[in-house]
């Protein structure tokens, strides 16, 4: 998120947290070798489906969970059923609230947040969130989980000359998955922006077929 304190012990990306628990059995430590820091107070930052997943997993591990989202609840990109289930499990929603820094001295002790005013609509049609001066407060936390979206690693794109990107940063590709460098094909989030696994798999199959045709001289 680019705020102070993100490198402290107890700060996880949602991907790391969910992978450790769901695939590596961190919830059963020490029976399994991969631990995850358990916290009595957990703050999850985000409003999408992954944020709901992370909040509910942390809750099932015994934590008191607050979900911090900078817009209104009705603006959350998560599916309504996901939001409903999170509420049923006791997740507390702090909407119109945005984190400004993570507190602690090496280990997380809290999160400073600021209240947000909903102003004129942005390009997506949702109200633009603007900080309210003097509204800062501290939320106690031993674990912070960031679920604010993922993006492909930009290093490879920057290293290859000739690749053209769209306004949002994704690679420009044609209907066959071919980039602006004729021998390079792309599929998934790097080409379309954030989307679903099934769409990425479908695009990858098209790109793979196009590569085969290229090698076959078609």
Give an overview in words.
With 218 residues, the protein is α/β, with parallel strands linked by helices. 27% of the residues lie in helices and 23% in strands. It contains six helices and nine strands. The strands form two sheets. A five-stranded parallel sheet has the order 1-9-2-3-4. Strands 5, 6, 7 and 8 form a four-stranded antiparallel sheet that branches. The mean pLDDT is 91.
Main attributes of the structure:
23% strand, 9 strands, single chain, five-stranded parallel sheet, alpha/beta, four-stranded antiparallel sheet, 2 domains
- Please provide the count of β strands: 9
Q: Major β-sheet, in short?
A: 5 strands, parallel
Helix percent band: 25-40%
Named at the architecture level, the CATH assignment of the largest domain is 3-Layer(bba) Sandwich
Order of helices and strands: EHEHEHEEEEEEHHH
Number of domains: 2
| Average of pLDDT | 91
Cα separation of the termini: 46 Å
**Class by alpha and beta content:** alpha/beta
Which radius of gyration do the C-alpha atoms yield? Answer: 20 Å
What is the beta-strand fraction? 15-25%
Strand order of the largest sheet: 1-9-2-3-4
The CATH class assignment of the largest domain is: Alpha Beta
**CATH fourth-tier homologous superfamily of the largest domain:** FAD/NAD(P)-binding domain
Please count the helical segments.
Answer: 6
User: What is the molecular shape?
Assistant: globular
The CATH topology name of the largest domain reads FAD/NAD(P)-binding domain
Low-confidence runs of at least 5 consecutive residues: none
